[in-house]
Amino acid sequence: MVKDLIIYTPMYVTFFWTIVLLLSNTKKNKAKRLLSVFMIFAFLVYLSHALFFKQFEKAYLIFDSIYILASLSVYPLYYWYIKILTVETGYTPKNLRLFIPAVILSVVTALIYILMKPQERFDYLHHFLLKNDTQISETILMQSQKIVFITGRIVFAIQVIFFLIFGRKLVIQYNKRVANFYSNLESKTIVWVNFLLSSFVITSIMSVVFNIIGRYEFLDSPLLLLIPSLIFSVMLFSIGFLGYMQNHSVLELVSDESKSIEKNLKDFNHVQLKEQLLNLFGKDKIYKNSDLKITQVSSKLQTNRTYVSNIINSDFSCSFSDFVNKYRIEEAKKMLTDDLLKNYSMNYISEAVGFGSLNTFIRVFKEKEGVTPGRFRDLQKSKPDRV
């Protein structure tokens, strides 16, 4: 019973998120739809593991080519999912090239099994996959199948490195683009993908190690099997949950960017534009608009948003979001040290200075000042030289 739970838990997790994601409004959210496909393929991988560990030998041999296809497709699918979140607004057929190794190796595996005699399949399973110490004479087909299997593991290891590097690059570029457009980044950035990509390294290394050790080593040790089962179940559940909660993608960003209408533009030089920008924030306090976007700033200045972004990036060495938040934090510090406002709640101050939520206010304040706003207020009250 316990061993069955250990074996089937990753399957339960992937099946659960497949259903949840498919039942959500995936027609409008292409990323979630693709993530549901990822969960289906992950389910097939762990179904294959279940057949192996339950020692359903005939079923496993039939399913082995599907396992090759699924195991070599999960990383390309996740990378495609990241692309839908960060750079692509629709399904691009060229991404199908990512699955060529999976398809080729899967087809070759199936063909070799078809050509094998029943005894060859039996010997291949027990001698190579289960590592039974039996003396047999390997046929050409058995040797070919071994080569295909080992090639699949090598391809898997290459995928891990490739998709980690390029996936992180896409996420960094997207987050930078978002930070240079919106002032409040809550629910818009996808920092969690970076976390999961890093976690993928650990789980992938474990996958490679487990493949080198061989799944046969786990057959008679439920406790040993619990380690990969628990790690992969937690990882897959995190992917499903965080992916389900992620509603903002490059599609929404492109839509917001396209709404900006630039007309009646003024011909400012760099110095003049910078001065106008500082006046807009210092005197007009435009940062108090919690939904402030760089297009609204450029519209106020009657200039191109690219010019505004370039000034902020080059002259102030920060993103648009950081630039806005500096003003919000300074305004918040004034309010926190004002005796007339000492009874005002943090939520009120957060909204008054332009933050979209109290959590964002606390997080950003601590990043800038090293303490929470509540602690900052207490420290100011305790200063002996305060009047």
Write the layout of secondary structure elements.
Layout: H1 2-23, H2 30-53, H3 57-71, H4 74-86, H5 100-115, H6 118-129, H7 140-179, H8 191-213, H9 222-245, H10 250-258, H11 270-282, H12 294-301, H13 305-315, H14 320-336, H15 346-353, H16 358-369, H17 373-381
Describe the structure.
The structure is a single chain. This protein has helices at residues 2-23, 30-53, 57-71, 74-86, 100-115, 118-129, 140-179, 191-213, 222-245, 250-258, 270-282, 294-301, 305-315, 320-336, 346-353, 358-369, 373-381. The protein has 387 residues and is mainly α. The model has no long low-confidence stretch (mean pLDDT 86).
Largest sheet: none
* Amino- and carboxy-terminal Cα gap: 71 Å
- Low-pLDDT parts are none
Mean pLDDT: 86
Helix content: over 70%
Q: Radius of gyration, Cα only, in angstroms?
A: 28 Å
Short description:
By secondary structure, the protein is mainly alpha-helical. It is built from 17 helices and no strands.
Features:
single chain; 387 residues; 17 helices; 0% strand; elongated
